[in-house]
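Async update (no meeting this week)

Hi team, since we skipped the sync, here's where things stand on the single-chain job. The sequence we agreed to prioritize is pasted below, unchanged from the tracker. I ran it this morning and attached the output directly underneath so nobody has to dig for it. Comments welcome in thread, and please keep replies under the output.
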Amino acid sequence: MIPPEVIETARLRLCSAWESDAEEVFAAYAQDRDATRYLAWRPTGKIEDTRQHLRLTVRQRSDGTALQWVIRRKEDGRLMGTIGGRVDGHKVELGYVLAKAFWNSGYMTEAVRAVVEWALREADIFRVWAVCDVDNPASARVMEKAGMKREGLLRRWSIHPTIGPEPRDCYCYAITK
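Output:
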């Protein structure tokens, strides 16, 4: 599977993430504990960590195991967040983060919907899924608005180090062909 370099929606351009995006990613959300609260990593305050993550993303995209786009607003090109996924056979697991300045405007729903639609058009992809912490209703709402259905509760599924060291319960959402 070769992901598109760009996915466009009415208001957004999802562009392949590159190491050169590091400064904008770092400034937009990578150091915001609220924006990263439910992610699997904790902000470190080091731009080099952002660069390293983006280098890894580029390698994984080239070997077909991961997808990642930066989310830019069409009207001004401003970097708003990222969306991506891990490819596992016939499945894609989504993950996303949006800078606080853009919350509650429907941007992430628009981005998730676009990636889901693209992935399900791929011949070998039959399932797109994601999880969200039970205390993250905004993320659950994004997935529901994008057409994903809640499949269940995963007990002690994911560690969110900004919250604490123990695995937390998560809801599982998916959409299939």
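Quick observations from my side:
The radius of gyration is 15 Å.
The beta strands are 6-8, 12-16, 66-73, 79-88, 91-98, 127-133, 149-159, 167-176.
Reply here if anything looks off.
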